[in-house]
Structure formats: structure tokens, C-alpha cells
Write a structure and sequence with these properties.
The protein has one helix and ten strands. It has 127 residues and is mostly beta strands. It is globular. The protein binds zinc ion (ZN).
Length: 127
């Protein structure tokens, strides 16, 4: 994949669509073992906030927040598919569900880094 790539994505029912600019390809793929991500199971790519634009259906996105309520998790209220979230570790970034991206096969990516979200530095005081 080219270093800088425009790619489009959508939820399952197609109500929510978005455009994504990947400035460094799929270099920053990760999954995470926190209480949310281990249930969700998505592999994500991290991008600067400005690199994601919702092109359709923004009003159909639900927002879910928990714990420190820093991260903002968005999903389609019709089909339930998680599209993206604003990251807690770096609120200047979105993490985007690569399963929603056109032309990318999440099962064909090799080894994916697992973020140790269950031991997140933002939670250490509360434990
Ligand atoms: Zn949908």
C-alpha cells in the first residue's frame, strides 16, 4: 500500500460512510485487551483526527463512553457496527475499525500488535 492513501469505509448497513487518509499506510495497526476492545474484537488503525471525515450518516452514530470517559467510541445505531473511536492515549487521534475499510482484509495482515489496554497508564491510580 502507498504511504499516503485515500480509502473509504462504511458500517455494515451503509448508513454511515467515511473517508480516511492513511498517511503512513497501515503501519499503526493494533488490537487491544481492555474490557471494551476484547469484547469488540476489532483491529484498528490510528490516524490524526483530521484524517477521518464522516461523509454520510453522522447523525446515526451513537456515542459510548465508560470509565474515565476520555475515549469516545462510535457505532452505527442501526447495524451496531463500531466504526471508530477517539483514542484515550492520544485524543488527537482516531482509531478506525479496519474491518469497515474497502478493499482491506483484516484476516490477511499477519501479526498485529496488542495494546496492553487492561493495564492502561491512565488507570494506574484507580487500581
Ligand atoms: Zn449501520
Amino acid at each position: 500500500m502507498n504511504p499516503s492513501t485515500e480509502i473509504s469505509g462504511s458500517c455494515h448497513c451503509g448508513t454511515v460512510t467515511f473517508d480516511l487518509t492513511l498517511s503512513s499506510g497501515l503501519d499503526s495497526l493494533s488490537r487491544c485487551n481492555c474490557s471494551m476492545c476484547r469484547r469488540r474484537g476489532a483491529i484498528v488503525v490510528s490516524v490524526p483526527l483530521a484524517s477521518l471525515s464522516i461523509t454520510q450518516g453522522e447523525e446515526n452514530l451513537s456515542l459510548y463512553q465508560f470509565n474515565t470517559k476520555t475515549a469516545k467510541h462510535y457505532f452505527c445505531r442501526t447495524c451496531g457496527i463500531y466504526t471508530h473511536h477517539q483514542r484515550r492515549s492520544n485524543p488527537q487521534e482516531f482509531a478506525v475499525n479496519i474491518g469497515c475499510l474497502e478493499g482491506i482484509d483484516p484476516f490477511d495482515l499477519g501479526e498485529i500488535v496488542t495494546t496492553d489496554g487492561i493495564n492502561h497508564s491512565c488507570d494506574q491510580k484507580a487500581r
